[in-house]
């Protein structure tokens, strides 16, 4: 009888307590939430990173490397006494375009990365030059630069020779091309300023179009 009483008072091992069920549900809910957060984060990172990575997979890429303060100063120096519209090829976060707009130029930036273009537009509004600084999402090889009197390019060595030919065909004789970080391989610069990565080369179209700037 005593043994039967103990058996009756012992909780059944086949039925889990309510607290265990609640803990199980909480763990399940947290697991779903954690999976959703991780998945959403990965999607967001992919969406942001893809425009940066994709250009690097092209045969000729133009990576985003922010211009230094000194580089911007040197570019502005090369634009002294210049007039006419300006274009920055591969405008990145818009620093050159915004600086040129502050100097009185109507400036345009072409950039393949949409995130950088949207950020550039935000910066232009914040700096109060949105009326004279415009940015477009475009591949530089699909843009014609004939309407610009001033061209700024932060290029890479692999693209400079091909860009030479494009600009020779499209620019007017009074145009000036300003190259930062890397010079053009065949043109002779009219002016050079700066040192190291801040070096800037200025080329006048009247010289290189007729072949006078070629060796």
Automatic annotation (TrEMBL):
GO terms for molecular function: protein-lysine N-methyltransferase activity. The keyword Mitochondrion applies. It is found in: Mitochondrion membrane. Its main location: mitochondrion. The chain crosses the membrane at residues 30-49. It is a single-pass membrane protein. Keywords: Membrane, Methyltransferase, Mitochondrion, S-adenosyl-L-methionine, Transferase, Transmembrane, Transmembrane helix. One of its GO terms (biological process) is positive regulation of sensory perception of pain. Gene3D superfamilies: Vaccinia Virus protein VP39 (3.40.50.150). One of its GO terms (cellular component) is mitochondrial membrane. PANTHER family: ATP SYNTHASE SUBUNIT C LYSINE N-METHYLTRANSFERASE (PTHR13610:SF8), METHYLTRANSFERASE DOMAIN-CONTAINING PROTEIN (PTHR13610). Mitochondrial protein-lysine N-methyltransferase that trimethylates ATP synthase subunit C, ATP5MC1 and ATP5MC2. Trimethylation is required for proper incorporation of the C subunit into the ATP synthase complex and mitochondrial respiration. Promotes chronic pain. Involved in persistent inflammatory and neuropathic pain: methyltransferase activity in the mitochondria of sensory neurons promotes chronic pain via a pathway that depends on the production of reactive oxygen species (ROS) and on the engagement of spinal cord microglia. Belongs to the ANT/ATPSC lysine N-methyltransferase family. This is ATP synthase subunit C lysine N-methyltransferase.
